[in-house]
């Protein structure tokens, strides 16, 4: 555990790799050895959390101290990783078949015994078999493997030493990871510290913690808060010396505290309730202090089901949100999986209707310079290289949601970055033999959330159109017009078409006047933009050009991300293009940002689509101005 740092890959409960997202040093602590009936063990501290099963099948989350104090028998479920840092699953399964062929099967049971005088061979087989989620135990010169048993039993816990300890947090939905001996164990959550602080500050006003399942609400909330309040070091009581417990129930998942030393009876409404979004919220108390919703969506597979998302939204707005009373604050924490999940819908609602009530903190893994936002100098870091590796290995939608916090609806996506033709803009030089002209289009914006979007391309006689610049900005006309004029002159644009809607024609006239003042010749025109439906039709009709399909008369070629590293506008414009969803665009009530893809379609239809391809003109005057 001492070698683990932020960014280290570990195995989650489903056997897939996940990232360590937090490392928390605990100082010098007593270390206890938890031993299992298969001969494996885990060394950990008293506060370490375990997901255990009882003899009657109940699942609980307990710390090591609670395991020691209890007289019950506890079992840890076995997990078979589908990913392994040493070997592929195919090679391990081949090794397993080899073991079965050379072993003796025990009659009427799915159990095998392998005998060898070589302890290294026994350990090699045991390691492989445990990594596939099976029980393997070495006794003397024999390896006993049980393929029927799905858990292993805790048989002993003893104190073994004192040393520097730390715990970790992982980005797995169940927050469980595999440790020594392929043992499934638990991680900490930062969010519980906020709730513990809230509880200590205002125990007389009820709060509510909600997660996607009751099991997670119990783990993250109830058990986590309870462990913090009653920590062995007494740190919590030093911060809140007057706070004392009035009532607690693990079954009902409630905690009740008070800062009034004279109060002995529990409140009629407890200090904190912990609820699963998968159960009944109706009938629970009202939240007067904090309504804390943590990960209302389990994973990206659930988020991809729009029917489930619609059902959750109805439950969120019709039941959960109505639990709020008085000055209650809502805190939503989680991954923005989809444009349809409750978190994203809530943010979009308040952005549009009551922006003054919304505080949104969204930190993507990679910033506008394509560098990590979490590459801390003090050693606990997720480096830029780690995020780049994630981007290479993950599908684009998952990376956008899980790492970049950009919710996307997978069904209906039109453009995928990996399919686009690309070039290195940092080393780009025009091929003067085939170069024809530089053209642009401008989708004008007048403030708000919309962007002025102005892609600029070099047009070649073979139909290739490298995207050499993209002005993608927000602001009023006094701010944006000088930037538009500068870009036209800097990149040698000889033809530009503006969207004429909502004063765009007057905007174009203002740009033309500024160009004349600076004695720069460029043909400036404007055209009306179509309706939303026609806009979608235009984007769909232009998708061959935008994707750079070989069969298209004209082909857009985008710069590599590496070559526009640090160019915030260019990267944001590309991100918006790849997030465009045609299913959402068909919904007249749904709102999505489409300035970037729409400006590309304008470039195809209003500029390139009206121009016949002829020989190169060696002049600063465009062919359109000459009427040819």
Question: Outline of this structure?
Answer:
This protein has 628 residues and is an alpha/beta fold. It is 30% helix and 26% strand.
Report what the structure shows.
With 628 residues, the protein is an alpha/beta fold. It folds into 4 domains: 1-78 and 150-188, Hedgehog/Intein (Hint) domain (Endonuclease - Pi-scei, Chain A, domain 1, Beta Complex), CATH 2.170.16; 92-145, no CATH class; 191-357, 3-Layer(aba) Sandwich (Rossmann fold); 417-626, Nucleotidyltransferase, domain 5. Helix content is 30%, strand content 26%. The strands form 5 sheets. Strands 1, 2, 3, 4, 5, 6 and 11 form a 7-stranded antiparallel beta sheet that branches. Strands 20-26-23-22-21-24-25 form a 7-stranded mixed beta sheet. A 6-stranded mixed beta sheet has the order 15-16-17-14-18-19, with helices on one face. Strand 12 and strand 13 form a beta hairpin. The radius of gyration is 31 Å and the shape is globular. The model is unreliable at 610-628 (pLDDT under 50).
**CATH C-level label of the largest domain:** Alpha Beta
Provide the structure class.
alpha/beta
Predict the CATH topology of the largest domain.
Answer: Nucleotidyltransferase, domain 5
Q: Tally the helices: what do you get?
A: 19
Straight-line N-to-C gap: 72 Å
CATH architecture of the largest domain: 2-Layer Sandwich
Shape: globular
In total, the number of strands is 26
Estimated share of beta-strand residues: 25-35%
Poorly predicted ranges: 610-628
Largest sheet: 7 strands, antiparallel
In total, the number of domains comes to 4
Rounded average pLDDT: 82
